[in-house]
Amino acid sequence: MSIPPENNRDLVILEQIENDPDATQASLASRLGVAVGTVNWHLKRLIDKGYVKARRVERRKLRYIITPEGLALRTRLTVDFVQTQFRLYRDVRQQVIHALEQARANGYDRVRLQGDGDLADICRLTCLEQNVAIVEDGNAPILAINNLKIRILWEESSL
């Protein structure tokens, strides 16, 4: 259900070129955190498919220009990315709700949160809307985040 990694890179490359047509392969690679060869491969593919044009502005310098087809591709990739993120959000939220239902069924209206980052933020928001407090109390069950799985742990030894 996720977007292929090359589409994510294509999207970032297209966005970067749109924002800075004078971007070099080296600067794009730095922004993406990948090798220059990886950016070169993506750019060649985007050029071959007609999404980007390269124009020489100096002997060793190119300017990249997004074609109308490239703009359409960027739009499609952006929509796909947003839809994928919303699906992920809804899936994680449903897992949290299910875990909180288990906690409530066992008489708990508070949990300890184990994890951080974006998924923990989704857990916090869902707990807030479900009127479940997040506490440090060692007697409360643990709402544990493990990769993209959310579950209730009833005691420390369950970790």
From TrEMBL:
GO terms, molecular function: DNA binding; DNA-binding transcription factor activity
HTH crp-type domain sequence ranges: 15-68
Segments forming domain HTH marR-type: 7-97
Source organism, top-level taxon: Bacteria
SUPFAM superfamilies, alphabetized: Winged helix' DNA-binding domain (SSF46785)
Organism placement in taxonomy: Bacteria, Bacillati, Chloroflexota, Anaerolineae, Anaerolineales
InterPro entries from the UniProt entry: ArsR-like_HTH, HTH_CRP, HTH_MarR-typ, WH-like_DNA-bd_sf, WH_DNA-bd_sf
This protein's name: Uncharacterized protein conserved in archaea
Organism, as annotated: Longilinea arvoryzae
CDD domains listed in its UniProt record: HTH_ARSR
